[in-house]
């Protein structure tokens, strides 16, 4: 069992890293938050289906066929990964980027990790502390609901816990669209952590129905995931993006694993059937609360650093078609400005101005004194130029 879980964890972690890397590469500067949110939505769809159907499937067909069902799902995931890999390679070749990416990636060294910006490290700890408060809670929430609240069996408790992922499934895409248009990633990460604080206090010290808390946590989790993960490609170089994604995934999983060990020590029982005293559950909720408080602190530091360094995270990076066209034209103009002047034959006897229609390039010529060239561009004022003056006049 332990070996199987280790293999599953290593494979799942690698898939998440590659998935995030591919998503960031193809959607940077576009609908980046939406793309990440959709990947979160489908991941949470799998989690929700697991909460709803796995126990029923096991009760009807037994544990052996349930495990075989999981194997079939892994095979389908392998086929999908192969398709994505082919599309990624073909797409980079069509854009002519495969050689450049490989060349830049060769320059990355392990020592370069220490040069990753402060933005990035604050994002790492913001993500880690938030997930430290969410994942261990979700893993133990079904048992907590059965122990604290009367009238909840294991199936009903699992449905209530699944509401966390149900909210993420429904809200992730709209939240991603919103973030693409308004930006404010750092601010939303801060408010997501801040508004998560009451969840664990309600669960530990009040009799508010647990569904209220799980729905609340699902909303804040949706905003946190949609604001933090798409921020990483904005603060690290393209060539080190895979390394950055892998590192943040490793730190997150290490943090969640250590928190699970601490939670197990706090609850102090090896039997899933024994009822755990309420005071132990309260200690666990206080531990979850401490992680979210740490997340609030790191998100505040993240916003302060971001403001001092130009506000990268809190401005929108999705450009409208007009803005993208303007950017392309600006880049073309910069390239054209580097073209050297081409000499043409002097024609001092010309009585009429020589008219040239050039598109998209302008060629300014060296000519004899007194010769004037009028260069017309479509939809643009006439540029009148001679060797001693350069002026722009209206048509």
Automatic annotation (TrEMBL):
Top-rank taxon, per record: Eukaryota
GO cellular component, one term: membrane
Region span, Disordered: 373-395
GO molecular-function terms, A-Z: transmembrane transporter activity
Residue ranges, compositional bias (Polar residues): 385-395
Transmembrane as UniProt keyword: yes
Positions of transmembrane segments: 32-53, 65-87, 118-138, 158-179, 186-205, 211-232, 244-266, 286-305
Keyword list, A-Z: Membrane, Transmembrane, Transmembrane helix
Stretches assigned to the Major facilitator superfamily (MFS) profile domain: 1-309
Membrane topology: Multi-pass membrane protein
UniProt subunit comment: Homodimer. Interacts with lysosomal protein GLMP (via lumenal domain); the interaction starts while both proteins are still in the endoplasmic reticulum and is required for stabilization of MFSD1 in lysosomes but has no direct effect on its targeting to lysosomes or transporter activity.
Function: Lysosomal dipeptide uniporter that selectively exports lysine, arginine or histidine-containing dipeptides with a net positive charge from the lysosome lumen into the cytosol. Could play a role in a specific type of protein O-glycosylation indirectly regulating macrophages migration and tissue invasion. Also essential for liver homeostasis.
Protein known as: Lysosomal dipeptide transporter MFSD1
Species assigned in the record: Leptobrachium leishanense
